[in-house]
Amino acid sequence: MIVREYEKIFPNDCPNFDELRNFAESGDFFNLSWRYVQAKNYVGVIRLPSGFQIEILPKIDAPNEKLRGLVIEMLRTLKDFSCKKFLNAELDTERLPLYEIFIQIYLEMISDLVKRGLKSSYIEREENLKFFKGKLLINENLRKNFAHRERFFVSYDEYEIDRPEHRLIKAALLKFRREKLARRLLNHFDSVEASKNYSKDFSAISIDRTNREYQAVMNWTRKILSGESFTPFIGKSEAVALLFDMNKLFEAYVAEYIKKYFSDRFKVKIQAQEKFLFDEPRSFGLKPDIIFEGDEKIILDTKWKFEIAPSDMYQMFAYAKRYGAKKIFLLCPAEENFYRAEDFELKICNVNLFDMETSMNALQNAAVVV
Predict the structure, then answer these.
(1) CA separation for the pair 325, 320 (Å, rounded)
(2) pLDDT band at residue 5 under the 50/70/90 scheme
């Protein structure tokens, strides 16, 4: 099933509608009514326990295949999406459902890790053995082996792969064990027990130069298992969801093009908080999405909105006043417009996600003469 942002899903549209409702009640990705579940501003995919999949695509007038490819292109620019190298040209991003794309990306990350070689470490063991090994634990040995002099209660270190990272990875792989590649990868984790306490295992991990290659995998695994930002296995529903905030995707995508087109003419600052609404006490930080610094300061803000609200304009007014900017650009998919105040000018610039080159060229012209 494919829907767009803000589209309503009714019981007749979705088999096992109760599963979807359970998922929706566990997070903040949907609006709920007694009659329907309504998508918010998240795009991605949900796979219900029954196997029914729901893709949520951007609210743009374009074929689903084209929108699916756009979502993947936007993910390439998302800072927190730490597996961009696996979004390669071999992935048929227009034909494959998003669920298959996302799962394939994660499994390829694990496969790459396995090929490099899983890290091992010394694990302290305490066991009652028939032979002596390591260090004898005298008190325990006396207590357990008083009548069994042939045994030794000892402590020893064993070099193995049963580390917190691998326990967490195995827990994530088990979520996808229907996938052929996941089953094959699980063979490499036979001697590892799947994590039963995610928080404890994550807190035991320390990424340094010896295990730096685990950073991206653990970021992704944390999101899969812990319900951060995207991909929570949320609540009691056991639904697999990989959902991305369209606002953040739009910000990241536009920022990437801004840096490409304007870095030679301006010092481009992304998400830099330099001013506050009030000086005494210093409070209510003002952080425009983009600041141009050159002969003059220009503020740019991105909003994934098709209609601009009065509150958006008040925010632009605050930026202009506190940053001393004479030009403000509001970049969004809404209709273009132009406003002039006593000491600054504001232009709403339409951004066409399927023709970013034209959008950036128009912005270049406007940045010189408004």
Answers:
(1) 5
(2) very high
What one-character DSSP code corresponds to residue 13? G
Distance CA(89)–CA(77), nearest Å, equals 16
Q: What percent of the chain has pLDDT over 70?
A: 88
| Torsion of Cα atoms, 72 then 76 then 82 then 83, to 10° | 60
Residues 267, 293 contacting (CB under 8 angstroms): yes
| Residue 273: band (very low, low, confident or very high) from pLDDT cuts 50, 70, 90 | confident
| Distance of alpha carbon 226 from the chain centroid | 12
> Model-level pTM?
0.72
Q: Are 110 and 173 in contact (CB under 8 A)?
A: yes
Q: Can you read off the two tokens belonging to residue 245?
A: 């905030």
Tell me which of 370 and 253 has the higher pLDDT.
253
pLDDT-derived band at 310 (thresholds 50, 70, 90) equals very high
Sign of CA dihedral 249, 254, 255, 257: positive
**Predicted confidence (pLDDT) at residue 370 exceeds the cutoff of 80:** no
Q: To the nearest 10°, the Cα dihedral for 13, 14, 18, 20?
A: -110
Q: Which fold has domain 263-368?
A: Trna Endonuclease; Chain: A, domain 1 (3.40.1350)
Domain with CATH 3.40.1350 in the chain: 263-368
Nearest-angstrom CA–CA distance, 170 and 194: 5
Distance CA(314)–CA(284), nearest Å, equals 14
Beta carbons of 11 and 17 less than 8 angstroms apart: yes
Cα 295 to Cα 52: distance, rounded to the nearest angstrom = 56
